[in-house]
């Protein structure tokens, strides 16, 4: 939905502005190497490393597809013209970028990682204990939400646009704490147990609320909060306040879509499991098992 809206906005821009924008790819060597290492390490683990470790579990193509989708989400967020547009012109474009880095990419990557791939990381008891404490739902929730709110404080947000090192650190925390937030729900390893589906549904529902509150505060602010966007060249007729209101709405509504999708999937799984348990308790499956041999 957000991508379509962004594409529609581009379609209405002047030909010269669009041409210049599509040439503004972020080809920072360190960033390109980092993204290449992520996908390279993943496929190296699936191939040579998997054979070396003697893993007999077949490669799950669905998992691979999830991981590639998460990696491509990072590529779009960090390398495409969206990065330049958010840094230099529009707060709303920057909010789309943050959503992709912190909310969309992490769960997709986690869905693509098989348990055996990261099992060596948790061989030590100390590592497992620390990982379970850090990924404890209250801790993961609090760290992620605090990070989002902290970086959107006007003084700190302005600093990220003025200092590349701070900006990189901001994006890194968004990504890492995003992974941490989703771990209690979709951990790929038994070393960090997943929550029950009922608690996961509640966790994701509550997780939407801080983003809604922050988005509302930004949307209804009486004046622009972030000075670099006040001074930035105007594009597509958006005033600084209108751009900020659009960015707040993106944080308020579309940013919660990944939570709602995961929440809905868990809810239907939870209902199906409850239904199966109730039918089993009523002896429905036992009766079927007794009848089946007689039919033969």
Molecular structure report:
- The chain has helices at residues 2-11, 15-22, 29-52, 61-78, 81-88, 91-111, 115-118, 125-134, 137-151, 154-162, 164-186, 197-219, 227-231, 240-252, 257-281, 284-295.
- It is mainly alpha-helical and 296 residues long.
- The protein has one domain (2-295).
- α4 (61-78) packs antiparallel against α6 (91-111) and α6 crosses α11 (164-186).
- The protein is globular and about 70 Å long.
- Residues 1-16 have low confidence and may be disordered.
Give the topology:
Layout: H1 2-11, H2 15-22, H3 29-52, H4 61-78, H5 81-88, H6 91-111, H7 115-118, H8 125-134, H9 137-151, H10 154-162, H11 164-186, H12 197-219, H13 227-231, H14 240-252, H15 257-281, H16 284-295
Report the principal-axis shape. globular
Helical residue percent band: over 70%
The beta-strand count equals 0
User: Which structural class should the secondary elements be placed in?
Assistant: mainly alpha
Amount of beta strand: under 5%
Sketch the topology as an H/E string, one letter per element. HHHHHHHHHHHHHHHH
Low-pLDDT parts are 1-16
Distance between the termini: 53 Å
Radius of gyration (CA) equals 23 Å
In round numbers, the mean pLDDT is 87
Outline of this structure?
With 296 residues, the chain is mainly alpha-helical.
Key terms:
296 residues; mainly alpha; 16 helices; 0% strand
